[in-house]
Specification:
Layout (H helix, E strand, L loop, with lengths): L1 H28 L8 H15 L2 H4 L3 H9 L27 H4 L3 H8 L8 E3 L9 E8 L5 H9 L5 E3 L2 E11 L3 H18 L2 E7 L5 H15 L3 E8 L2 E3 L1 H11 L5 E6 L27 E10 H11 L8 H12 L4 E2 L3 E2 L15 H4 L4 E3 L3 H11 L13
Parallel strand pairs: 2-4, 2-6, 4-5, 8-10, 11-12
Antiparallel strand pairs: 1-5, 3-4, 6-9, 7-12, 8-9
Helix pairs in contact: 1-2, 2-4, 7-14, 9-11, 9-12, 11-12
Bound molecules: 2-acetamido-2-deoxy-beta-D-glucopyranose (NAG) (4 copies).
């Protein structure tokens, strides 16, 4: 441990010197560019931090902070996240209207800010996607669920290379939705990110109705930073996933328009007010949703994701993120495919059923909802032990 700290500290000092040297050189050659690209500089310093600074420097290091303004190593202009200020005021266009006044407060809130499309990035990792990636694992998470992220990193989110094919993982976060969580959890998240380098965070509140915001932010991020991603698995942080089964599935099902998951056809908007997914007529008045895949976990082609980004910009945001993607797919005329290995609504609906705990069942699955960290670890170990199953499940 101490040995390790020492080594890290040494490399930190070295790289700090390097930064100073670079800066002096920079100043000499091109003083005007020093403060130009704040966003990129922040990105650069994050990479810097991750590689080099010692943990005990982390919490209050002003020297490294300083370099955020100092480094500018942009030789060729990279495209970066271009939203750096929050410039969004409530849309008062319909506040006087009766239908609006009759809505529940959360829907009013949603509508008032629906036009605010993109927010600045608080934590970015442009380097994550700088090489060819076969499978990018993208996990929706919130700031307080660090234990889920921890378990995912040790199980299905583990970054690795299989036969030369790279698997990488990122977590998508907004900011703490409760005031009392903000200060402390943000510090912890920064530290977590410093250790693992797999957090993408944007400056919007992580609420249920902002999940679609998270979706479009990710799609935009992908379009900027990921030139060469074959496939994307996107899911929740409380699911069981089998990357091996996903890879096996992809071998036989490659395709430009791949979009596969637990797809619902002819789903109806829920009109019961006590339901989590309730949608008032004022927001959506058709009787059916387009086909969409449950947001718990689905798989899509990298190039399709980029087209989804373009398409998403043509639509107004819809409060349910997976339905919103279904709307985009409909415009693109891409049919999401239902696959039995995606169980985002549980293996069987009866929560107490033994099937939901049966490792032999999990062995053949791609995604299963819903497991908390301890259950996930346990199931992962069971499935990856010498399991003897009485009957083989051939779902793939
Ligand atoms: C915010 O947006 C308004 C209208 O879109 C624009 O006039 C204003 O200059 C913007 N302010 C900033 C700080 O970007
Ligand atoms: C409010 O209505 C005006 C006029 O129809 C329109 O130009 C403007 O974009 C609307 N504002 C928002 C935030 O949608
Ligand atoms: C989404 O996030 C924005 C920015 O933090 C916030 O202003 C808005 O209230 C949030 N929307 C909902 C519906 O929670
Ligand atoms: C699984 O079985 C193989 C061969 O049957 C054995 O070599 C291995 O040690 C076993 N692994 C575990 C975790 O029991």
């Amino acid at each position: 441990m101490f040995q390790w700290k020492k080594t890290i500290y040494r490399s930190a000092c070295l790289s700090f010197l390097l930064v100073i040297t670079l800066t002096i050189l920079q100043r000499g050659t091109n003083p005007g560019s020093l403060f130009q690209d704040q966003q990129f500089s922040q990105d650069a310093v994050k990479i810097q931090k991750k590689e080099a600074s010692p943990p005990n420097n982390f919490w209050g290091d002003k020297k490294l902070e300083m370099t955020t303004e100092m480094i500018d190593v942009t030789e060729e202009q990279v495209k970066t996240w271009d939203v750096t200020t929050i410039n969004c005021t409530a849309n008062g266009n319909f506040t006087a209207m009766d239908w609006f006044k009759g809505l529940e407060p959360n829907f009013q809130q949603f509508l008032l800010y629906r036009h605010c499309r993109y927010f600045p990035m608080l934590i970015n990792h442009p380097e994550k996607c700088s090489e060819r990636i076969h499978l990018l694992i993208v996990v929706k998470s919130i700031i307080t669920q660090h234990d889920r992220r921890e378990t995912i990193r040790k199980t299905w989110g583990k970054e690795k290379e299989v036969d030369g094919k790279k698997i990488k993982t990122v977590f998508l976060l907004g900011t703490a939705s409760k005031d009392e969580e903000r200060a402390n959890y943000q510090k912890l998240l920064d530290y977590e990110n410093y250790i693992y380098g797999d957090i993408l965070q944007w400056n919007f509140l992580d609420t249920f109705f902002n999940l679609t915001l998270k979706e479009v932010h990710f799609l935009k991020w992908l379009s900027i930073y990921c030139n060469d991603v074959d496939y994307i698995f996107k899911g929740d942080d409380d699911v069981y996933v089998s990357p091996d089964n996903i890879l096996e599935f992809l071998e036989g099902n490659a395709g430009e328009n791949l979009f596969v998951g637990d797809v619902l056809h002819n789903a109806r908007p829920i009109r019961r007010k006590d339901n989590k997914y309730y949608i008032p007529n004022a927001l959506y008045d058709k009787s059916l949703y387009p086909p969409y895949a449950g947001g718990g976990g689905f798989l899509m082609g990298g190039s399709l994701a980029k087209r989804l980004y373009k398409t998403s910009e043509m639509l107004e945001l819809y409060p349910i993120d997976d339905v919103f993607l279904g709307m985009c797919l409909e415009i693109l005329k891409v049919n999401p495919i239902k696959h039995e290995g995606f169980k985002t609504f549980g293996i069987v609906r009866n929560k107490n059923s033994k099937m939901n705990k049966e490792p032999c069942f999990f062995r053949g699955m791609l995604v299963v909802h819903k497991l908390l960290p301890a259950e996930l670890s346990h199931m992962w170990d069971l499935v990856h032990s010498n399991l003897t199953c009485s009957r083989k499940l051939n779902l793939l």
